[in-house]
Amino acid sequence: MHLREITDDNREAVRALRVRRDQKQFVASVSKSLKEAAKTPEANPWYRAVYRGDEPVGFVMLSWKPPAGPFRGRHFIWRLLVDKRYQKRGIGREALALIVALVRADGGTELLTSYEPGDGEPWPFYRKFGFEPTGEIDDGEIVLRLALPTG
Protein backbone atom coordinates (compact mmCIF):
# COMPACT_ATOMS: atom_id res chain seq x y z
CA MET A 1 0.00 0.00 0.00
CA HIS A 2 1.21 3.51 -0.77
CA LEU A 3 0.12 7.13 -1.09
CA ARG A 4 0.14 8.73 -4.52
CA GLU A 5 -0.26 12.30 -5.70
CA ILE A 6 -3.53 13.13 -7.40
CA THR A 7 -2.87 14.05 -11.03
CA ASP A 8 -4.87 14.40 -14.23
CA ASP A 9 -4.23 10.68 -14.81
CA ASN A 10 -5.94 9.47 -11.63
CA ARG A 11 -8.17 12.38 -10.53
CA GLU A 12 -11.46 10.92 -11.83
CA ALA A 13 -10.80 7.47 -10.36
CA VAL A 14 -10.01 9.03 -6.97
CA ARG A 15 -13.04 11.33 -7.12
CA ALA A 16 -15.21 8.25 -7.75
CA LEU A 17 -14.32 6.75 -4.35
CA ARG A 18 -17.34 6.62 -2.02
CA VAL A 19 -18.07 5.75 1.59
CA ARG A 20 -21.15 3.78 2.63
CA ARG A 21 -24.42 5.70 2.76
CA ASP A 22 -24.48 5.59 6.59
CA GLN A 23 -20.99 7.19 6.69
CA LYS A 24 -21.73 10.21 4.47
CA GLN A 25 -22.63 12.40 7.45
CA PHE A 26 -19.11 11.84 8.84
CA VAL A 27 -16.88 12.00 5.75
CA ALA A 28 -17.07 14.50 2.91
CA SER A 29 -16.52 13.27 -0.64
CA VAL A 30 -13.17 13.52 -2.39
CA SER A 31 -14.59 16.17 -4.73
CA LYS A 32 -15.80 18.30 -1.82
CA SER A 33 -12.47 17.79 -0.03
CA LEU A 34 -10.48 18.96 -3.06
CA LYS A 35 -12.73 22.02 -3.37
CA GLU A 36 -12.23 22.81 0.33
CA ALA A 37 -8.48 22.45 -0.09
CA ALA A 38 -8.50 24.89 -3.01
CA LYS A 39 -10.64 27.40 -1.07
CA THR A 40 -8.51 27.29 2.09
CA PRO A 41 -4.83 27.44 1.15
CA GLU A 42 -4.13 28.98 4.58
CA ALA A 43 -4.88 25.54 6.08
CA ASN A 44 -1.84 24.23 4.15
CA PRO A 45 -3.73 21.25 2.67
CA TRP A 46 -1.76 18.14 1.75
CA TYR A 47 -3.65 15.30 0.10
CA ARG A 48 -2.96 11.96 -1.53
CA ALA A 49 -4.80 8.98 -2.95
CA VAL A 50 -4.39 5.73 -1.04
CA TYR A 51 -3.43 2.92 -3.40
CA ARG A 52 -3.34 -0.81 -2.99
CA GLY A 53 -1.22 -1.94 -5.91
CA ASP A 54 -2.44 0.02 -8.94
CA GLU A 55 -5.95 0.54 -7.56
CA PRO A 56 -7.05 3.73 -5.73
CA VAL A 57 -8.87 2.58 -2.59
CA GLY A 58 -8.94 5.69 -0.43
CA PHE A 59 -8.12 9.34 0.10
CA VAL A 60 -6.37 11.27 2.82
CA MET A 61 -6.05 15.01 3.39
CA LEU A 62 -4.09 16.72 6.12
CA SER A 63 -3.69 20.27 7.24
CA TRP A 64 0.09 20.16 7.24
CA LYS A 65 1.39 22.50 9.94
CA PRO A 66 -0.75 25.50 8.94
CA PRO A 67 0.82 28.88 9.75
CA ALA A 68 -2.30 30.17 11.54
CA GLY A 69 -5.60 29.05 13.04
CA PRO A 70 -6.50 26.69 15.87
CA PHE A 71 -4.10 23.97 14.67
CA ARG A 72 -1.19 26.30 13.84
CA GLY A 73 2.03 24.38 13.38
CA ARG A 74 0.39 20.98 13.95
CA HIS A 75 -0.41 18.03 11.70
CA PHE A 76 -4.16 17.50 11.46
CA ILE A 77 -6.00 14.76 9.54
CA TRP A 78 -8.71 16.67 7.73
CA ARG A 79 -10.09 13.70 5.76
CA LEU A 80 -9.57 9.96 5.77
CA LEU A 81 -11.78 7.99 3.43
CA VAL A 82 -11.71 4.34 2.40
CA ASP A 83 -13.99 3.37 -0.48
CA LYS A 84 -16.97 1.26 0.59
CA ARG A 85 -15.75 -1.65 -1.58
CA TYR A 86 -12.48 -1.86 0.36
CA GLN A 87 -13.57 -1.30 3.97
CA LYS A 88 -12.98 -3.88 6.71
CA ARG A 89 -9.66 -4.94 5.15
CA GLY A 90 -7.24 -2.93 7.31
CA ILE A 91 -6.71 -0.26 4.66
CA GLY A 92 -7.66 2.61 6.99
CA ARG A 93 -5.20 1.34 9.59
CA GLU A 94 -2.45 0.95 6.99
CA ALA A 95 -3.11 4.42 5.58
CA LEU A 96 -2.98 5.88 9.08
CA ALA A 97 0.33 4.11 9.72
CA LEU A 98 1.75 5.65 6.53
CA ILE A 99 0.55 9.10 7.64
CA VAL A 100 2.09 8.62 11.09
CA ALA A 101 5.42 7.70 9.48
CA LEU A 102 5.33 10.84 7.30
CA VAL A 103 4.44 13.10 10.23
CA ARG A 104 7.23 11.57 12.35
CA ALA A 105 9.69 12.06 9.46
CA ASP A 106 8.63 15.72 9.42
CA GLY A 107 9.52 16.01 13.12
CA GLY A 108 5.93 15.80 14.33
CA THR A 109 5.33 14.68 17.91
CA GLU A 110 1.55 14.41 17.60
CA LEU A 111 -1.17 13.87 15.04
CA LEU A 112 -4.60 15.41 15.44
CA THR A 113 -7.98 14.72 13.90
CA SER A 114 -11.61 15.35 14.77
CA TYR A 115 -14.96 13.69 14.28
CA GLU A 116 -18.61 14.53 14.48
CA PRO A 117 -20.30 12.43 17.16
CA GLY A 118 -23.23 10.25 16.16
CA ASP A 119 -24.40 6.74 15.47
CA GLY A 120 -21.69 5.08 13.37
CA GLU A 121 -19.05 7.68 14.23
CA PRO A 122 -15.36 6.87 13.54
CA TRP A 123 -14.29 7.20 17.19
CA PRO A 124 -13.89 3.40 17.72
CA PHE A 125 -11.49 3.24 14.75
CA TYR A 126 -9.32 6.09 16.07
CA ARG A 127 -9.44 4.80 19.67
CA LYS A 128 -8.11 1.39 18.57
CA PHE A 129 -5.23 3.17 16.85
CA GLY A 130 -4.35 5.03 20.08
CA PHE A 131 -5.97 8.45 19.64
CA GLU A 132 -7.32 10.15 22.75
CA PRO A 133 -9.73 13.09 23.13
CA THR A 134 -7.97 16.41 23.78
CA GLY A 135 -10.99 18.00 25.45
CA GLU A 136 -11.16 20.51 22.58
CA ILE A 137 -14.18 20.95 20.33
CA ASP A 138 -13.67 22.41 16.83
CA ASP A 139 -16.77 23.47 14.92
CA GLY A 140 -18.87 20.92 16.82
CA GLU A 141 -16.35 18.11 16.31
CA ILE A 142 -14.42 16.30 19.03
CA VAL A 143 -10.67 16.76 18.60
CA LEU A 144 -8.46 13.70 19.04
CA ARG A 145 -4.70 13.44 19.52
CA LEU A 146 -2.23 10.67 18.86
CA ALA A 147 1.06 11.20 20.69
CA LEU A 148 4.10 10.31 18.59
CA PRO A 149 6.94 9.77 21.04
CA THR A 150 10.40 10.18 19.59
CA GLY A 151 12.91 7.38 19.69
From TrEMBL:
CDD domains documented for this protein: NAT_SF
PROSITE patterns in the record: GNAT
Residues in coiled coil: none
UniProt domain N-acetyltransferase: residue ranges: 1-149
Stored Pfam families: Acetyltransf_1 (PF00583)
Residues spanning the signal sequence: none
Name this protein carries in UniProt: GNAT family N-acetyltransferase
Organism of this sequence: Streptomyces formicae
